[in-house]
Design a protein that fits this description.
single chain, 458 residues, mainly alpha, Glycosyltransferase, two-stranded antiparallel ribbon, 14 helices
């Protein structure tokens, strides 16, 4: 990625307005006309949302989109759709013991509703707040119960692959275990053992930063600072680390860029949480400053790696090791071309990463480091400028997606290749659309000098 002229949120304002204008009718139509019997929407084919049975992790994004659009526009119809959709359809996700995606599904819905209630944005009763908080507490505890121990100490929340598997994605889902802790929840184990959810959150963060993020310290022959492994594999018999792996990336030794984006945004949000805690609120034997230092270090190396391996406009290829990437030349020398014949770019990775960049900028501003704050903010605004403009902005009313050129699972061939093209392009994903809306809502609030967008309000 290359820096251009300095941008401001006010300069981005017309693009935000246009994005909300295009998104509102699409989200309302999708919620009102989607046939739930076929599953939940995941990604588009020829502009129409389709489903894909793998794990259920996107339904919360659908109703969360409506709540975010209400947040940005005040459209009461979207509030009704998001609120009713959450209460009517999301309860079974709270006790879904088979996924690592609770922070995706349940904080996008119950979390957004609670946030809007606490801000006085929507009418509510105390019982409605308590319902949302109970949902978050249950979801956070269930998420934390998917636990594997590591031989060296600590542990991690298991991915849907099973007890051997630590996914980089789950750092972003830890937002729900942390909030559940702030709300007073503990996980009750065998023999009435009380398990501290903040301790579980921090142990998972430490494991992720140690095993899924690389720092140029010679862990293997491909230890490039900022490289991210999608998955870390452990021997479940003794908890020993075995190797990196990947499900959706090209190889265990390259970086699947959506996974890297999860790390960037996850580090930023967890840093925001830890900065607001006191040392005496930390689990016994845990140093708040040491955890902050580890998150800072991971955020710094992954953001730099992201910038070095993205196009000039901030959009990355789906994987830094994509086999035909070399045919595109120096990747950050020119803007991304999603219609190229060699490898797809992934707008969803950019949407997720951009929010992380912005939050990191905000964090460094509060610390008094204006140089870093400005650098991170400019990266976020540059990516947002790209996403909310053609060819990434989905301007056609006939296309159900909001942001185009998202990639789901390139190795499995799940992404649609339009006629006349050689690689996937022109399609959207529900996680890409949701995170673009979360980014847009965050920027809109900053633009209008409204309270900063965070879920971590106890």
């Amino acid at each position: 990625m290359r820096q251009g002229p300095t941008l401001t949120i006010q300069e981005l304002a017309p693009k935000l307005d246009r994005f909300f204008q295009l998104a509102a009718p699409k989200v309302a139509d999708l919620i009102q006309h989607w046939n739930g019997d076929s599953g939940t929407p995941v990604f588009t084919v020829n502009g129409r949302y389709t489903t894909r049975g793998w794990t259920e992790w996107t339904q919360g994004f659908l109703f969360g989109e409506a709540l975010l659009l209400f947040d940005a526009t005040g459209d009461e119809t979207l509030l009704k759709l998001g609120r009713e959709g959450t209460l009517d359809h999301m309860a079974h996700h709270l006790t879904h013991t088979g996924v690592h995606d609770h922070g995706f599904n349940n904080l996008s819905t119950y979390g957004n509703l609670r946030r809007l209630m606490l801000e006085g944005r929507i009418p509510h009763t105390q019982a409605e707040i308590q319902t949302c908080e109970l949902a978050i507490r249950v979801s956070g505890a269930v998420q934390a119960s998917r636990w594997s121990r590591i031989a060296e100490g600590g542990g991690y929340i298991q991915s849907f692959n099973g007890p051997h598997s630590l996914f980089c994605d789950t750092i972003r889902s830890c937002r729900i275990t942390a909030l559940a802790h702030l709300l007073g929840q503990v996980l009750m184990g065998e023999g009435d053992r009380r398990i501290n959810l903040l301790a579980r959150t921090i142990e998972h963060l430490q494991s992720t930063l140690k095993y899924n993020v690389y720092y140029g310290e010679g862990r293997d022959q491909y230890d490039v600072p900022g490289r991210v492994a999608h998955e870390s594999i452990f021997n479940t018999a003794d908890g020993q680390y075995r190797c990196p792996s990947t499900q959706q990336g090209y190889s265990p030794f390259s970086t699947w860029t959506r996974g890297q984006a999860w790390i960037i945004s996850g580090c930023a949000e967890q840093l925001e949480l830890l900065e607001q805690l006191d040392d005496n609120q930390m689990p016994s034997g845990t140093s708040r400053q040491e955890v902050i230092a580890a998150l800072d270090r991971a955020a710094e190396v992954t953001t730099q790696h992201y910038l070095q391996n993205s196009a000039a406009d901030g959009i990355p290829l789906w994987d830094t090791g994509a086999p035909n990437a070399h045919r595109l030349g120096e990747i950050n020398a020119a803007p991304s071309d999603p219609f190229n014949d060699w490898e797809p770019f992934d707008s969803s990775a950019a949407a997720i990463a951009a929010q992380g960049f912005y939050r990191l900028g905000k964090l460094h501003a509060t610390r008094g480091n204006q140089e870093k704050a400005g650098r991170y903010h400019q990266c976020a605004l540059r990516i947002a400028f790209t996403l909310f403009s053609p060819p990434y902005l989905s301007e056609s009313a006939q296309h159900q997606g909001l942001i185009l050129h998202s990639v789901y699972h390139r190795p499995n061939g799940w992404d649609h290749v339009p006629e006349g093209h050689k690689v996937p392009c022109g399609e959207s994903s529900l996680w890409g659309d949701y995170h673009a809306l979360e980014l847009a809502a965050l920027l809109q609030r900053e633009r209008c000098q409204q309270p900063y967008f965070t879920f971590f309000k106890p």
